[in-house]
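Lab manual, section 2.4: Encoding a predicted structure.

Procedure: take the sequence of the chain (78 residues), apply the prediction step described in section 2.3, and record the output as structure tokens. A sample record is shown.
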Amino acid sequence: MKRNLLLILLLGVNFYTHLTYAQVWQQIADFQGTERDDGVSFTIGNYTYCGSGLKTGWSLGRDFYRFSPLSEQWDSIA
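Recorded output:
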């Protein structure tokens, strides 16, 4: 069984995905949330989830977003 790996790199609020077949990085849709430190991200199935962390001014981030590579969109989920 072939498995696809979605590799995402976060630079500020810009995200990039690695296209293994072409060995290049391609920018994906901008993250809808605000900039933050110490946020978390993980992938389940075809979706990548990002959120939490400390926002500007050291306020606690309680929001979470999901990225779908099929629709190339971020959706707020919490």
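Check your result against the sample. The longest strand covers residues 14-19.
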